[in-house]
Amino acid sequence: MNPTQLIGIALVVAGGLGLAYGSFSYTKDTHQAKLGPLELKVQERETINIPVWAGGGAIVAGAVLLVLGTRKS
Q: Which pLDDT score, from 0 to 100, does residue 72 have?
């Protein structure tokens, strides 16, 4: 299995996950303050939406790389 096929498989899997889930979120620490024994933290939850066209495009690009990878062998 050559690197082109591995990248193609990774793109197909990532595109499928992007279409299945549609978004992912993570927590980010934004502000911290320490005043003696008192500690203040602010955590923000960020959500990133994955467009349908991006997931579909990743699947198509991965399929193209898989086909090209098998032709070169």
A: 57
Delimit the domains of the chain by residue range: 3-72
Sorted by sequence, the CB contacts under 8 Å of residue 44 that are 6+ apart come out as: 27, 28, 30
Helical packing angle, 3-21 and 52-72, nearest 10°: 160
Separation of alpha carbons 2 and 9, rounded Å: 11
Q: How many CB atoms within 10 Å of residue 3?
A: 9
Cα of first residue to Cα of last residue in the chain, in angstroms, is 9
Nearest to 47 by CA among 65, 26, 18, 28: 26
Query: pLDDT tens across 27-56, in order?
Result: 988 878 888 888 888 889 999 999 999 999
